[in-house]
Design goal:
Blueprint: E1 7-11, E2 15-21, H1 27-37, E3 48-51, E4 54-60, E5 63-69, H2 73-83, E6 89-92, E7 97-103, H3 107-114, E8 129-134, E9 137-143, E10 149-154, H4 158-169, E11 174-176
Parallel strand pairs: 1-11
Antiparallel strand pairs: 1-7, 2-5, 2-6, 3-4, 4-5, 7-10, 8-9, 9-10
Length: 177
C-alpha cells in the first residue's frame, strides 16, 4: 500500500465568478449580496467569507470576487443587478477564471515555492486571502478551515499552472483529482 500524497490538487468545476464593485459601507450592496448569494461581503482587507455554496473574496476596498457553486453566470449577474440600487458594478467573469483546491499536509510548502507571499499558518490563517504573484502569473489564494487552500487564477494560465504545480509538488507526492 502506498502512502497518501502530500499534495492533492482538485479542479473545482461548476463555479460562477462575478466581480462586484461598490462602496463597502453601503448597506444596499451588502443586503443585495446577502439576498442573492446568502453571505456577507468581507470588509476587512485580505479576508473572505463562505456560506453554503458561495464565497466572497476581498480584492480591494471596493471590490470582491463572488464565487457560487452550480449557478449560471448570467443569471447570477442579473439577480445581483436586479437587487442592487445605486452606483455598483457587477460583471460575470466566469469564462476567465479557474478555481483549484490544493490540500494535503504539504500543500503550504508548494504555495511557498509558488509565491513570495508568506503562506505560513501564523501569517496566513484560515479566513485570509491574498492576490499575489504565483509562479510567474497571478492568483488569489485563500486559506480554509480544513487546512486546504482555494487558488483562483486566469483560465489562460490553467495548463501552465497545472503542470507547474505537479512539478513543484512531485517531491511530496502529488495527485490530481
Amino acid at each position: 500500500m502506498s502512502e497518501p500524497p502530500g499534495v492533492v490538487c482538485r479542479e473545482c468545476p461548476d463555479r460562477v465568478f462575478a466581480n462586484v464593485r461598490g462602496d463597502s459601507g453601503d448597506l444596499r450592496l451588502r443586503r443585495a449580496v446577502a439576498q442573492v448569494a446568502g453571505l456577507d461581503l468581507p470588509r476587512e482587507p485580505g479576508t473572505w467569507n463562505r456560506a453554503d455554496r458561495s464565497r466572497a473574496y476581498w480584492l480591494g476596498p471596493d471590490e470582491w470576487l463572488l464565487v457560487v457553486e452550480g449557478d449560471d453566470g448570467l443569471a447570477l449577474e442579473e439577480r445581483l443587478r436586479d437587487a442592487l440600487d445605486g452606483p455598483f458594478s457587477v460583471a460575470d467573469v466566469t469564462g476567465a477564471q479557474v478555481q483549484l483546491e490544493l490540500s494535503g499536509p504539504d500543500a503550504g510548502k508548494v504555495l511557498q515555492k509558488s509565491s513570495p507571499y508568506d503562506f505560513h499558518p501564523r501569517k496566513f490563517p484560515p479566513g485570509r486571502c491574498a492576490q499575489t504573484v504565483f509562479s510567474k502569473t497571478t492568483a488569489l489564494v485563500a486559506a480554509r478551515e480544513d487546512g486546504a487552500f482555494d487558488v483562483v487564477f486566469r483560465r489562460s494560465y490553467a495548463d501552465y499552472l497545472m503542470r507547474w504545480l505537479a512539478d513543484a509538488a512531485a517531491e511530496y507526492g502529488y495527485r490530481l483529482e
